[in-house]
């Protein structure tokens, strides 16, 4: 297995409170696989990725438990994590402008990243930089090496960021909301770039997104996060066809129509996410769940297997694993299938 995250917990402490942003999270990514982590704002998606990258800033933030194994090495205890992070694992963020240096040319930034991690001559690095810019679809790549970040459009900058991420030849890319700030046409182009990267380089992708359309189009498996925990995980086809947790059901029901603006934050279900600094006696979703009963408010459900490869954290599902009790929520099946059809996954 390429990446194995096991029982990961990450906390932020201030003088008055402790927020457990990631709570006992476990998942894997195989070589060449694309796994999506989905959930609304504040669910812990980004902090999971930042924990993998070693970018949670002490002293306020700290990984407090669990392990992160990458290519067999424990990233939390390895002596020289930079050897792996930033080279074998690369992260691409939502806002390229904050990750690119405005006063250095794209060529300089690409080749410096490459030469820092791999022993390439200046000329070799330049040749590779041109190849990477071509791979991500930047026309006239050799000339564009001399351009500065502000001379690129938003979509082109995101392509440059992907090229930067690829410059060290990573086995895994963590892509955090990389299409969120872009308009729909450009979003589609960036997803095509990621597709090309996967096919041509075989890079695995951990795709963090709130957009289920992106999930359907790109991911083989999905993990749904809520309140810092994993609440459901399954193959993409399985999750869309037969969600087992009411939160996932709500997410699917709220999938924006194809002609709507997908850059809007996902606010699918009435109510607000739980306060992660307060202990929760029962299911974290209970306060917003149309199906909640007494047990849901008093005892936390465990993440249990509902069928092979499909896990859900829900008392209802544990009692009725066929999911029949969830049926009847208007229109959800149709909407979910429309998204899958849009992504070319079903006829
Ligand atoms: N530096 C920080 N200090 C304190 N709390 C933080 C910090 N970073 C994140 N958190 C908290 O951790 C929780 C999870 O945040 P995270 O950014 O992972 O959510 P997310 O699902 O990625 O949402 P978004 O899409 O808005 O980034 C939130 O409650 C957030 O307030």
From TrEMBL:
<keyword id="KW-0813">Transport</keyword>
<dbReference type="InterPro" id="IPR017871">
    <property type="entry name" value="ABC_transporter-like_CS"/>
</dbReference>
<protein>
    <submittedName>
        <fullName>ABC transporter ATP-binding protein</fullName>
    </submittedName>
</protein>
<keyword id="KW-0547">Nucleotide-binding</keyword>
<dbReference type="InterPro" id="IPR003439">
    <property type="entry name" value="ABC_transporter-like_ATP-bd"/>
</dbReference>
<dbReference type="InterPro" id="IPR003593">
    <property type="entry name" value="AAA+_ATPase"/>
</dbReference>
<keyword id="KW-0472">Membrane</keyword>
<dbReference type="InterPro" id="IPR013563">
    <property type="entry name" value="Oligopep_ABC_C"/>
</dbReference>
<keyword id="KW-1003">Cell membrane</keyword>
<comment type="similarity">
    <text>Belongs to the ABC transporter superfamily.</text>
</comment>
<dbReference type="InterPro" id="IPR027417">
    <property type="entry name" value="P-loop_NTPase"/>
</dbReference>
<dbReference type="GO" id="GO:0005886">
    <property type="term" value="C:plasma membrane"/>
</dbReference>
<keyword id="KW-0067">ATP-binding</keyword>
<dbReference type="GO" id="GO:0005524">
    <property type="term" value="F:ATP binding"/>
</dbReference>
<dbReference type="GO" id="GO:0015833">
    <property type="term" value="P:peptide transport"/>
</dbReference>
<dbReference type="Pfam" id="PF08352">
    <property type="entry name" value="oligo_HPY"/>
</dbReference>
<dbReference type="Pfam" id="PF00005">
    <property type="entry name" value="ABC_tran"/>
</dbReference>
<feature type="domain" description="ABC transporter">
    <location>
        <begin position="3"/>
        <end position="252"/>
    </location>
</feature>
<dbReference type="GO" id="GO:0016887">
    <property type="term" value="F:ATP hydrolysis activity"/>
</dbReference>
<dbReference type="InterPro" id="IPR050388">
    <property type="entry name" value="ABC_Ni/Peptide_Import"/>
</dbReference>
């Amino acid at each position: 297995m390429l990446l194995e995250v096991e029982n990961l917990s990450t906390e932020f402490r201030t003088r008055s409170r402790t927020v457990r942003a990631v709570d006992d999270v476990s998942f894997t990514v195989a070589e060449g696989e694309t796994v999506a982590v989905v959930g609304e704002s504040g669910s812990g998606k980004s902090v999971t990725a930042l924990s993998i990258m070693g970018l949670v800033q002490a002293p306020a933030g700290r990984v407090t438990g669990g392990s992160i194994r990458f290519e067999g090495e424990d990233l939390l205890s390895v002596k020289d994590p930079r050897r792996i992070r930033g080279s074998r694992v690369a992260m691409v963020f939502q806002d390229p402008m904050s990750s690119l240096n405005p006063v250095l040319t794209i060529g300089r930034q690409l080749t410096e990243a490459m030469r820092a991690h791999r022993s390439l001559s200046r000329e070799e690095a330049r040749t590779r930089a041109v190849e990477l810019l071509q791979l991500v679809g930047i026309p006239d790549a050799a000339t564009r090496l001399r351009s500065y970040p502000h001379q690129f459009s938003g979509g082109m900058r995101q392509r440059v960021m992907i090229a930067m991420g690829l410059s060290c030849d990573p086995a895994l890319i963590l892509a955090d909301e990389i299409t969120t700030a872009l308009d729909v046409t450009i979003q589609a182009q960036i997803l095509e770039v990621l597709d090309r990267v996967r096919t041509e380089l075989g890079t695995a992708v951990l795709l963090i997104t709130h957009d289920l359309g992106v999930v359907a189009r790109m991911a083989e498996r999905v993990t749904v996060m809520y309140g810092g925990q994993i609440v459901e995980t399954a193959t993409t086809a399985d999750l869309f066809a037969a969600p087992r947790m009411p939160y996932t059901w709500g997410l699917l029901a709220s999938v924006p129509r194809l002609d709507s603006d997908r850059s809007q934050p996902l606010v699918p279900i009435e109510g607000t996410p739980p306060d992660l600094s307060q202990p929760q006696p029962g299911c974290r979703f209970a306060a917003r769940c149309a199906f909640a009963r007494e047990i849901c408010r008093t005892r936390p459900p465990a993440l249990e297997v509902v069928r092979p490869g499909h896990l859900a954290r829900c008392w209802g599902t544990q009692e009725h694993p066929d999911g029949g009790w969830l049926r009847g929520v208007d229109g959800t099946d149709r909407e979910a299938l429309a998204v899958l059809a849009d992504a070319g996954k079903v006829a």
